Amino acid sequence: MKPVSFKYLKPTGLEEATAILAEYGAEARILAGGQSMMPMLNMRIARPSVLVDINEIVELNYIRASDGAVAIGAVTRQRRLGDDDLIAAQVPVLATALKCMSHPQIQNRGTIVGSICHGDPAAELPAVAIALGAEVTAHSQAGARTIPVADLYRGYYRTTLEPNELVSEVKFPAMPPGCGWSVVEISRRHGDLALAGVVTMIVLDGKEIGQARLACFGLGKAAHRLVEAESMLTGQLASGDLFQEVASIVSSSVKPMDDSHASAEYRRALAAELTQRSLSEAIERAKQGATS
Amino acid sequence: MSIPVPFKSKYVGQSVKRVEDPVLLTGRAPHIDDLEFPGMLHVAFLRSPHAHAKIKAIDIDAASALAGVEYVLTGDELKQETRPLNALPGVAPGWTGYAMAADKVRYAGEALAAVAATSRYIAEDAAELIQVEYEILDAVVDPEEASLPESALVYEDKESNVLFQRNYTYGEPDRAMKEADLVVRENYRFPRVSGNPLETVGVIARWDSIADELTCWTNTQSPGGSIRGFFVNPPGRDQITSQPHGGSFGTKMGALVKYEITAALLSRRCEGRHVKYIEDRMEHLLASSTHAWDRRYEAEFGFTSDGQCTVMKVRLLNDVGSSCENAAPSMCWKPLVMLTGPYKVQHFEYDMTAVVTNKTPEGAYRGYGVPPHTLVIERLMDKAAVALGLDVAEIRLHNFIQPDEFPYKTPTGTDYDSGNFPAVLKLALEKANYEELKAEQQRRRDEGALVGLSVVFGVEPGGVWAMTGPFRDWLGGMGAINPESAAISISAEGTFDVELFYALEGQGQPTFATQVIADYFGVTMESVRVRQSDARSPAPSMGPAGSRQAVVLTFALIGAADKLAARLIRVASNLLQTPVDQLEIAESSVQLKGGQGPSLPLGQIAATMTFRPDLLPDEIEGNPQVTHTWRASRPVDAEGSPYLTYANACHVALVEVDRATGQTSIEKYVIADDCGTRLNPAMVEGQVQGGVAQGIGATLFEEYVYDEYGQPQSVTFADYLMPTIYEVPMTEKHAFVTPSPLTPLGVKGTGEGAIHVTPAAIFCAINDALAPLGVELEHANAKPERVWQLIQQAANIDGNINKIGE
Ligand SMILES: Cc1cc2nc3c(=O)[nH]c(=O)nc-3n(C[C@H](O)[C@H](O)[C@H](O)COP(=O)(O)OP(=O)(O)OC[C@H]3O[C@@H](n4cnc5c(N)ncnc54)[C@H](O)[C@@H]3O)c2cc1C
């Protein structure tokens, strides 16, 4: 379990980093918190000839308000999601997601952007980002472009990022006032990547569901939105029957995989259960939000 | 608690802090991977990606040519130089391979070439460059299919894949089964699991041809030993030493041998340079030869109508993996020393079959085969209770060996030393508020929740002193004694040095050795220092195994202390001009019995021995150090138990199974246990909590999974799920003390008890939770999906899936 030989570079600025990426292209890989990258290197699943360690780019360590959104820099650690006031006020769903994720040791090192770029189909943050309509900013020497996280994934652990691009930040739109949310998952152990998970955000319009955003993880090749479920919910009165109907649609529309922990069939059953749990929890929060 | 000690106990029986912890916790114990030698080479293995394949050709040219590579050793070359790994003495030869695969590979992960290079990185680069041409063979994966005539053969020169088959019958089980009022039967599976210590195995070998000597530094659990016999051209002598190690649980025994052999041969090929191999975690999970208890059971118990168990029949099919290179198959035998558990049953049939398959070879694991056996017994007791309308606690009380029946001879001829099973069970029930738990369970069941409650019991053979009784059959009729030694010396300052003859492993023996010796001589613990030698001493020692060290070491320590005390008293008798029989040791002095009159500090006596031996008559031995080797005073060919003590425990567990997901949560876990005198109660609790964690692991999380091609699916900790602190509740622990009459301080071995009983507790509780659905879990690993499948089945039987949960 030793990596192949590689050149180790440690840029201290974004420009230096993009210059390195421009030079080495697909030969290079970015190292952020290393919580996924180090195992991939040691198991020789990743075999870069250049490793670009971005941890010293201190300018990318931030959480800040930005045009009705919360922008988070590429070296900001996941742990911050649990203790940041701006996040608690504007995107509290991220703090909820953190509670499902890994363990403090890993959160202290792993980055928020790294998790999104890694795109593990069973990871929480990509799904939350998709439900929120978050975007990442990808930099290369040619300039910067913005990519909605919903468009970032194109298959199992594959993203639309170019090898010469580095994601400098992710921007999470602030949740609308009164928004109720939920992140639920089933994992084998506390802190494991999920067997299946669902993220829900609901805004009530009077008694009706005004707006619903749902995304799932662990239920396909990548996290994705549950558009059909959203449209079934919008404009409806929340009810157990409706939730059950939505759950069965979600369960039959997702395309989960088999592995040694769970079959696709079981994951579908979890999808139905989690959809119901998630909807009930989000509605509860939305009702509280509406009255508070 | 009264401790039957022959001295005033100030420390013995107290939860004093462990003396070895500062060194361990600050990372200063010299573990095998901390050792560096000039010019040392590092080994990486090429391991087979296939479960079963012929090696048609192997090309090492590119690997050998890589800068930094010193030697590439193939299995073929190794085969010319070595002999096959040891098989079980009681089993026909030819059921093992060599230290590396030569003509064919028998499991995915088996090593077929080893690279020695100037760094592990380069060695791994080179291993990737080795080209192998395989001819893939049908893999033997399912142990039941393995015994069918049409199955592929793991060993082509054998007639089948059946390694051995034995039947042990006691009493008249067939007749008793016919006469039984109630017969309960079930099939069970136990998952393939293993120990996973923090530190994996490692070896550094140096074969010095000039000195004609091979040295292996290792972290073996079993000190002493020799591997000379494996070589066609052996070294003149060899020495296997052992560094302190980061846990073992049985994993640091057999598996090491093949790495010692390979590293040794590489060292010889590289002009005697030191050659280091440290197993990485993937290799440990994939190929360590320590997987255990991949078992299927068919069990059938007979009862009278009032709940007396009269007969047990247990048929075991054990998948030992590709080879019996470790003592693993002897784990099939160990249940013979506790075959009926805590119950009085005269008729028993134990039928065991072991088959080889194309999976990682089995090896020892804490508990050594008893946990699955206990699970089978306890689950069938529950089934009988339900069938007879008895409470699960009641049926156990009804069948227990009673306190006045000890020493109790079991049908297999083993002797249980002492115990009070009813009292231990009642203590657990009382502390768990059993009646309230039952009421709570009923209430929640009525609301639709799947809540299960279990009360299970187990006995723990401890203090293994010999390979006798049932083990003799395994050893092909031979026996063996397992002695243990301790040395003590006293300095002129009156401080004591204690030496133990095996490596530090972590269970806490240095601490209780300090407690015992401090109390024996009436000194402070700070005046006693314990060293663990690296096995270079010839003093016989087996080291920790079979829940033995607290038992055998107290014998050795007190034996050594007695010898030293006698010597000190003789010297003092001379100096004080007082007859020996009027003197005694107390409060770090030799004094007149009863405490009147003059006394001599022990340090002064030692100083006299060391610096003024001229004051002593010639016949007094002036050496202030003694060694004592303890061995049981029974003949090796005796019937009876290879274990001296039988600790026992009752576990009460309350669980809830989630109907929608099949996930189990443990809500309450209460233990009462009796391991005789507790030398250090906190250390006993540590052993119990750790065993609980491993039991929870086996029943809810851990499992080595193989696909239908024999491909291992659990080769990282992302797939082999060790329970963490979040999954293992801190159990409530309560002590009951029945001292063993056979050991000096009344201690009983207790290193394994909790892993014996916990799987049964969790498994029985889950089955109790599922009972209202009319389904039963047969696989002891209650992976959520397995349980969910059963709940689905129940729903289908009901004919209406949607009703469930409403
Ligand atoms: C025991 C354990 C449990 C875990 N449990 C969970 C869990 O429950 N949920 C969960 O979501 N995750 C879990 N993880 C994964 C963890 O969250 C990782 O930290 C995360 O997936 C990756 O973030 P990182 O900063 O460590 O990135 P790295 O590991 O350094 O990189 C991951 C990938 O992203 C790329 N990358 C990183 N940063 C950038 C960037 N700025 N621009 C472009 N590409 C980039 C890297 O090149 C690499 O391909 C767990 C990890 C461990 C070890």
Description:
The complex is a heterodimer of chains A (292) and B (806). Chain A has 292 residues and is α+β, with helices and mostly antiparallel strands. Chain A folds into 3 domains: 7-53, 2-Layer Sandwich (Uridine Diphospho-n-acetylenolpyruvylglucosamine Reductase, domain 2); 58-173, 2-Layer Sandwich (Uridine Diphospho-n-acetylenolpyruvylglucosamine Reductase, domain 3); 180-291, CO dehydrogenase flavoprotein, C-terminal domain (Enolase-like, domain 1). Helices cover 35% and strands 24% of the residues of chain A. Chain A has a 5-stranded antiparallel β-sheet. In chain A, strands 9-10-11-12 form a 4-stranded antiparallel β-sheet. In chain A, helix 2 (37-42) links the parallel strand 2 (28-31) and strand 3 (50-53). In chain A, helix 8 packs antiparallel against helix 9 (240-253) and helix 9 (240-253) runs antiparallel to helix 10. Chain A is globular, with a radius of gyration of 19 Å. In chain A, 50% of the residues are buried. The model of chain A has no long low-confidence stretch (mean pLDDT 96). Chain B is of the alpha+beta class and 806 residues long. Chain B folds into 3 domains: 21-28 and 482-630, Aldehyde oxidase/xanthine dehydrogenase, molybdopterin binding domain (Aldehyde Oxidoreductase, domain 4), CATH 3.30.365; 32-137 and 200-245 and 256-287, Aldehyde Oxidoreductase, domain 3 (Alpha-Beta Complex), CATH 3.90.1170.50; 295-467 and 638-804, Aldehyde Oxidoreductase, domain 4 (2-Layer Sandwich). Helix content of chain B is 28%, strand content 24%. Chain B is built from 19 helices and 30 strands. In chain B, the strands form 8 sheets. A 7-stranded mixed β-sheet of chain B has the order 3-5-1-12-9-10-11. In chain B, a hairpin with a 5-residue loop joins strand 16 (408-409) and strand 17 (415-416). In chain B, helix 9 packs across helix 10 (392-399), helix 9 (370-388) packs parallel to helix 18 and helix 17 crosses helix 18 (753-770). Classes of the chains: A alpha+beta (292), B alpha+beta (806). At the A-B interface, helix 10 of A face helix 4 and helix 19 of B. Residues 29-37, 74, 101-102, 106, 110-111, 113-115, 117-118, 120, 123-125, 161, 166-167, 191-193 of chain A line the site of flavin-adenine dinucleotide.
